[in-house]
Amino acid sequence: QVQLLESGGGFVQAGGSLRLSCAASGRTFNTYPMGWFRQVPGKEREFVAAFSWSGGRTDYADSVKGRFTISGDNAKKTVYLQMNSLKPEDTAVYYCYQGSSVSRSWGQGTQVTVSS
Fold it and tell me: Regarding beta strands 34-39 and 92-99, do their DSSP bridges make them parallel or antiparallel, or are they unpaired?
């Protein structure tokens, strides 16, 4: 089973940047896509971005296209989420995942807070 450890969250002013990292353990970490969801209290967890180890394909939610960039380092078993031009509505707990819509492993989450 893959274990995921996120880091890089924090507090930033609107317009600023943060980079999240998600380090995976286990030999099968690159068998399925990895990516990020986010969640605010009282709302469902929503998709943010995904990275496919096969071919490096990326997918983004419309709300973050052009501002966020997801990438992966196979040697480090790590996926990154570079977040630029942050907005207050990006404030959430960001969760790293590995897997598909059928089954996912999740990290513990990292808080991102963007002040206006």
Answer: antiparallel
DSSP E strands in 8-101: the ranges are 10-13, 18-25, 34-39, 46-51, 58-60, 68-73, 78-83, 92-99
Pairwise CA distance, residues 60 & 69, whole Å: 8
Tell me the C-alpha distance between 58 and 78, whole Å.
Answer: 15
**Residue 3: which H helix or E strand, with range?**
strand 3-7
The model's pLDDT over 67-108, given as tens digits with 9 standing for 90+, comes to: 999 999 999 999 999 999 999 999 999 999 999 888 999 999
Backbone angles phi, psi at 88, to 5 degrees: -55, -30
